Amino acid sequence: MSNPGMEALIPLVNSLQDALSDVCYNYELHLPQIVVVGAQSSGKSSVLENLVGRDFLPRGTGIVTRRPLILRLLHADTVYGEFHHCKGNKFTDFNKIREEIKAETERLTGRNKDISSVPINLLIYSPHVVNLTLVDLPGITKVSVGDQPADIEYQIRKLIMQYICHENCLILAVTPANTDLTNSDALKLAKDVDPQGLRTIGVITKLDLMDKGTDAKEILENRFLPLRLGYIGVVNRSQKDIDGQKDIRAALQAENNFFLSHPAYKHMAHRMGTPYLQKILNQHLSNHIRDTLPGFRRDLESQLRALNKEAEEFRLDDPTSRNKTLTLLIHHFADELKKLIDGTCDNVDTVCLSGGARLNQIFHLRLPNELTKVQPDEIKLRREISYAIRNIHGVRTGLFPPDMAFEAIVKKQISWLKEPCNKFIDMVNEELITTVNQCFDKLTCFPKLREETEKLVTTKIYEQERKCKDLVLQLIEIQLAYINTNHEDFVGFSKNIVSIVNVIRKGWLTMSNIGLMKGGKEYWFILTAESLSWFKDEEEKEKQYMLPLDNLKLKDIVKGFKSSRFYFSIYNTELRNVYKDQKWLELACCSQEELDSWKVSLFRAGVFPDKVDGLGNEEFTDPLLERQVETIRHLVDSYMSIIHKTFRDQMPKTVMHVMVNSVKEFIRSELLSQLYPLRETLMDESPDQQQHRVEVLRKHRALKEALAVIEQVSLSIPLPPPVDSPRIQPSSSQETSKNGRPGHPPLPSPPEHHKRHNASPDSFMHSSTQHIRPRPSGPR
């Protein structure tokens, strides 16, 4: 037995599925899920079987459906069933499907009356169905029996809500005709999730079991508790018919005879019964397909536009296409490298630095750091300056710092710049190669082209690296050729070199032997190569005194163990007063580290301890020599700061011009000309690329065919005709009479205030006593 209404949809759905199946993107026509909801023993399972056209669900009294049954109908050439819990086992006998459903239910819930929310998934393959999902749920019950939990009603309602709350769900609210419709749990649950009634159809069962003299005429005419989609009456097989294995075809014929012969229903027999319910469901499926096609078309057109360019590039059947592809690939490669270096990429990397950002980091962080590493040790530098001064003076005692000592030290430090500059070029070279490699992705499709391109570009990078190192070496030689002491930033420019006063150290010190305050008084001290001055505060506006450093010596002072400060003193070797009537200055620091630092600074200024044991350098004992060393040292620092500033500025410019820009220009203007003679062999695709090209062209062709099929399908699906039911006609009495047919009585026009109310999209169901006037007796 098949579903004729469903079979009418099969060619349409199959044509769409076939058109879309060749597209790599997995398109599916997600048809609505039909969920059957109703009270226990209301005939839900029978309605479901009639829709499928097969007798396969368990039967019995009480609660029979104790687990959700998710029934997926799949179009296939043969008829069989398959369960998700036993894949590969095909059931061709539907009686065995019924037994397996019962066994699987009892496996999880036992033989008692308990329920479970774990669904049973059944797939039925048939040439007479479309891809659709039907759900049979446990019937709503009020009282727990047997081993059922006390909250069985709450569990079942919660389970039903999980399924009917989805917008893609069509609700069949099943209610027996021999019960009070106002107490229908199915309608109440449906209203909770579908207040506008857009996806709820009322199904009235057991019409043949109503007491004599009673009927459901008002309900089926949608005059009592009307629904937006109305009610449909069905007559299912009785338990006697099922036990007697009455065929569904015969049951449907008996159902039709019942409606035609019943005096209350014969005028609407054409819109009652299981076939009409199938018609309504199929109309919803057709509407869904029609509403879905525009979205499919937009998605397919978007994919087609995205593939057009790539498919055009993959047409390599003639030499012209190969030449064009080679040109496009190299131009794209050059553009990608330019974007990476200039920072104009379409996709910004938010994980790490790359390309031009890495080069910028090398320019402004790594280069200054490498230049700083070549600065000499302070003691070693002072020793070298001392030796240079004394060797230049020879047997003479020099009164002024010699220029030759300054130049000798400066040239030596300039020559040390070769190593950090070469290391800087190596870092740029490495980063440039890394950046170029990031642009080879498009060339991966052609292994020989990538290999040859990589070889040519890498060779060019190393060639430019050698040129850059030679140019930097020339820059260093240029700096060594002439020491420009007239540079405007040089500290000795337009000044007498002997009169240069350089600050060696600044800081707070406490004078402990001057003043009446206990513990002494703090002053801001400034130490230069010529003097020691102190001020009231660090603003250096109120100078207290300036002490020349001539004939001064340094002496340690040991205080008691309770003292928290560290002391030293300064005195004059000729026993003169150093400050007012004081023969010495007693100074204090807060820590031993600070004390040692001040001592080193005083050594640099030519103030030495009264005992020089442990210094190991006899030159520290000559104050005049130390002042000359200090002067030259500061001149060297000043000049080398100019050199470092120059190289920090010139090195990035040099590598950008000689290396980065030259490589970019080579790729843009020369690379293609060197690759072009080898194009016949370079454009051989990799196996993966060949497969990818076939897939792209196949998908491009399939998309065009699918769009053509969808266009034909769109034209072949007209708007659905109005269903022969007054419940879905417009509320206007004029349109109702216009669409009405003989034997199909229209609804009387409600009062004006009810018209306005019924026009609201929020209306779902209305009381017959409030919204419906008494129906005239007799058919129209």
TrEMBL record:
<dbReference type="InterPro" id="IPR045063">
    <property type="entry name" value="Dynamin_N"/>
</dbReference>
<dbReference type="Pfam" id="PF01031">
    <property type="entry name" value="Dynamin_M"/>
</dbReference>
<dbReference type="GO" id="GO:0031623">
    <property type="term" value="P:receptor internalization"/>
</dbReference>
<feature type="compositionally biased region" description="Polar residues">
    <location>
        <begin position="728"/>
        <end position="739"/>
    </location>
</feature>
<dbReference type="InterPro" id="IPR003130">
    <property type="entry name" value="GED"/>
</dbReference>
<keyword id="KW-0493">Microtubule</keyword>
<comment type="similarity">
    <text>Belongs to the TRAFAC class dynamin-like GTPase superfamily. Dynamin/Fzo/YdjA family.</text>
</comment>
<dbReference type="GO" id="GO:0005737">
    <property type="term" value="C:cytoplasm"/>
</dbReference>
<dbReference type="InterPro" id="IPR001401">
    <property type="entry name" value="Dynamin_GTPase"/>
</dbReference>
<dbReference type="Pfam" id="PF00169">
    <property type="entry name" value="PH"/>
</dbReference>
<keyword id="KW-0342">GTP-binding</keyword>
<dbReference type="GO" id="GO:0003924">
    <property type="term" value="F:GTPase activity"/>
</dbReference>
<dbReference type="GO" id="GO:0098793">
    <property type="term" value="C:presynapse"/>
</dbReference>
<feature type="domain" description="PH">
    <location>
        <begin position="502"/>
        <end position="607"/>
    </location>
</feature>
<dbReference type="InterPro" id="IPR022812">
    <property type="entry name" value="Dynamin"/>
</dbReference>
<dbReference type="Pfam" id="PF00350">
    <property type="entry name" value="Dynamin_N"/>
</dbReference>
<dbReference type="Pfam" id="PF02212">
    <property type="entry name" value="GED"/>
</dbReference>
<dbReference type="InterPro" id="IPR030381">
    <property type="entry name" value="G_DYNAMIN_dom"/>
</dbReference>
<dbReference type="GO" id="GO:0016185">
    <property type="term" value="P:synaptic vesicle budding from presynaptic endocytic zone membrane"/>
</dbReference>
<dbReference type="InterPro" id="IPR019762">
    <property type="entry name" value="Dynamin_GTPase_CS"/>
</dbReference>
<feature type="domain" description="Dynamin-type G">
    <location>
        <begin position="28"/>
        <end position="294"/>
    </location>
</feature>
<dbReference type="InterPro" id="IPR020850">
    <property type="entry name" value="GED_dom"/>
</dbReference>
<keyword id="KW-0547">Nucleotide-binding</keyword>
<dbReference type="GO" id="GO:0005886">
    <property type="term" value="C:plasma membrane"/>
</dbReference>
<feature type="region of interest" description="Disordered">
    <location>
        <begin position="718"/>
        <end position="780"/>
    </location>
</feature>
<keyword id="KW-0505">Motor protein</keyword>
<keyword id="KW-0963">Cytoplasm</keyword>
<dbReference type="InterPro" id="IPR001849">
    <property type="entry name" value="PH_domain"/>
</dbReference>
<feature type="domain" description="GED">
    <location>
        <begin position="629"/>
        <end position="718"/>
    </location>
</feature>
<protein>
    <recommendedName>
        <fullName>Interferon-induced GTP-binding protein Mx</fullName>
        <ecNumber>3.6.5.5</ecNumber>
    </recommendedName>
</protein>
<keyword id="KW-0254">Endocytosis</keyword>
<dbReference type="GO" id="GO:0005874">
    <property type="term" value="C:microtubule"/>
</dbReference>
<dbReference type="InterPro" id="IPR011993">
    <property type="entry name" value="PH-like_dom_sf"/>
</dbReference>
<dbReference type="InterPro" id="IPR000375">
    <property type="entry name" value="Dynamin_stalk"/>
</dbReference>
<dbReference type="GO" id="GO:0008017">
    <property type="term" value="F:microtubule binding"/>
</dbReference>
<dbReference type="GO" id="GO:0005525">
    <property type="term" value="F:GTP binding"/>
</dbReference>
<dbReference type="InterPro" id="IPR027417">
    <property type="entry name" value="P-loop_NTPase"/>
</dbReference>
<keyword id="KW-0378">Hydrolase</keyword>
